[in-house]
Amino acid sequence: MRHAVARPLRLVPRAARAFNSHHARASSTLQHSKDKDASAHRPQAQHHHDRDRPRHTADVVPYLAKQPLHPLSLADLVKHGRPPLSAEALLASARFTLSLLPIRLAHRIQALRNLPYIVVSNPNISKIYNNYQHSLSTLLPWQGRTISNLDDEIRFTEVLAELVQTHTDTIPILARGFLECRKYISPTEVTRFLDEHLRARIGTRLVAEQHIALHFSSAAHSGLTTNHTPPPEHPSYIGVIDTALRPAATVDSCGGFVADICELNYGVRPRWIIDGEPDTTFAFVPMHLEYIITELLKNAFRATVENGMNREPVVITIAPEPPEVKPTPTPTPQPHQQPPTSCDTNPITPLDDNAPGVTIRIRDRGGGIGPDVLPNIWSYSFTTFSESDDVPGAGPWGGNTNTDDALNVISAANNGSSSIAGLGYGLPLSRAYAEYFGGGVAVQSLYGWGTDVYLRLKGVGVGE
């Protein structure tokens, strides 16, 4: 059984296969198009101060890395409208995607260059560095030109699919490299780098995957079907975003998955109940929520079982945030002027029917977190699982530690393991996903009793 995190990472290979089958004509002429683009559509200066801009990838990285990152929000990703998009809206989405990605890739390349030379020389980390260089080089020819027709959009989306596929295993490979370089870089530096890198990677993948999904669900390509786009009976989707996501359904789905793993490893199947307002909906990325909930339930279920409290259900409370009430000033009517109508002062958006955000509390009776463990739970280099345990005997919040374990697990994250233990990176990575759009994760422990984890998610917020 695959780990839940593998699900979103499989989007890209399917997208690439879809292009091979549905865009054979464009694919067969891709190399010719690249050659033609390189000569006929070399990036042109859009502003007078760009005239001296370097053209080669190695030279352009410092220039692009100095450009500010656009603060991505869910509103940015849904602003082109609800699918199927018109041809013009689809082209606008492609141009928006192109305006963001080169700068984001350059920031990652520069961050890798800033690591100690002996670390970057590691074959695994060097591979990731070269992947980013390659991806940037495939996007540079598109800068300075306008994606003005559907043929351009198809070729550009092919480039996006290749880009996302190239970076599918970035985190396991990076972790393997850091594990091999542990003598030359401190755990603190590893945590700082991975935290920044993961947050940046969330936005980069999301921007690319959003346009790929919009591409396949748009009117201009309505004859195409893929496995990764929502079927027509799910009109709440805009690309990879579900504008009416029901967290209770995600909890039940992920709870079943984690309970299966518990039963496999311990012979016990934990129970859970959902209270609060389970019918709440909000706008969010389903695969992000699935990952976060899966990781948090793994901790809660494992603690409950290993503390001998499996008769006590894990309680998940769903609390929607109240809608913001913004007072609307009533202007004084001028002579011969009608007062504004409600339609003028209260514009309706596609997201108005949902909660602006949701807080989810996961409460377990697993004994709480030891005071010696609590300060380390947000570190990527920390876990409580000892490699010597065939079946882990220490609770998830206390016991033996090994600073290399978490990196070991991350580096093997794509091997299909169904282990419920050793995921020392679950909390910090979940927090990265939650914080990206303005939410967060907080932990409150009653040592000797249990743990409350508060997951706050903003439906529309500012990311990084």
* Total domain units: 2
State the strand order across the main sheet.
3-5-6-8-7
Integer-rounded radius of gyration: 24 Å
Give average pLDDT, whole number: 76
The CATH homologous superfamily of the largest domain is called Alpha-ketoacid/pyruvate dehydrogenase kinase, N-terminal domain
Helix count from the secondary structure assignment: 17
Q: Which percent band covers the strand fraction?
A: 5-15%
* Run of helices and strands: HHHHHHHHHHHHEEHEEHEHEHHEE
Portion of residues within helices:
40-55%
Helix/strand-derived class? alpha+beta
**Largest sheet geometry:** 5 strands, mixed
Cα-to-Cα separation, first versus last residue: 33 Å
- CATH topology name of the largest domain: Butyryl-CoA Dehydrogenase, subunit A, domain 3
Shape: globular
Number of strands: 8
At the first level of CATH, what is the class of the largest domain? Answer: Mainly Alpha
Regions with little confidence, pLDDT below 50 for 5+ residues: 1-52, 223-232, 332-350, 382-395, 397-406, 409-423
GO molecular function, one term: pyruvate dehydrogenase (acetyl-transferring) kinase activity
EC number: 2.7.11.-
Organism: Staphylotrichum tortipilum
Enzyme class: transferase
